[in-house]
């Protein structure tokens, strides 16, 4: 028993170190003024990068706001589309169900560049390029399949008789969803929402092709500074970019732990 606990403790320590070390390194880089090999620590320190991020004159705040708005809208639409689709896939058999699953996986397994170029030509015809609406629509391409697949698993573990029993007791459709269905699939719904948000939040290729440089999101700003060689600002932006990811997984993990 003691050996097992020691092994588990070592595994947790190694995992935590692997997760925390890159973030700690980014934090040091964001305050570094000069840091050259083989120095273990920077030769000078500066808050220049963080002051730039907080400056109203920079494009960082608008990019963060745009990224958040797009990711939230994509999450809401993905969940709205995925709920009825996942319910049907989990509970009903119909001709072509396997083919539908294959088509659902195509946006996930297809090379992103190939699908993005095809969508770009279509969006040009409808005037959706260089618009926030176009970026939202193109982010739905990878987000919706993941959301449907995750919620399908949740509905597979959900017994439809629970809804029938609630209706027998006089509950209406909205009451059944509110008090029976949604609480039962809540863990899967939370994870699906987090993934949809993070898929949109982290999109670069789709955004740059459809947005055409007119819709500036945080990944675009981050890549431009990284290519420009400003390591301090790049590190600070990377930490800002990671913040919603860490927060989303922390909230989800806490929710799932409490739910269990």
What does this structure look like?
The structure is a single chain. The protein is mostly helical and 260 residues long. It has two domains: 1-46, no CATH class; 58-259, MetI-like (MetI-like fold, Orthogonal Bundle). Helices cover 79% and strands 2% of the residues. The protein is built from eleven helices and two strands. A two-stranded antiparallel ribbon has the order 1-2. Helix 2 packs across helix 11, helix 4 (97-109) packs across helix 6 (132-156) and helix 6 (132-156) runs antiparallel to helix 9. The radius of gyration is 23 Å and the shape is globular. The mean pLDDT is 83.
Notable characteristics:
single chain, 260 residues, mainly alpha, MetI-like fold, 2 domains, 2 strands
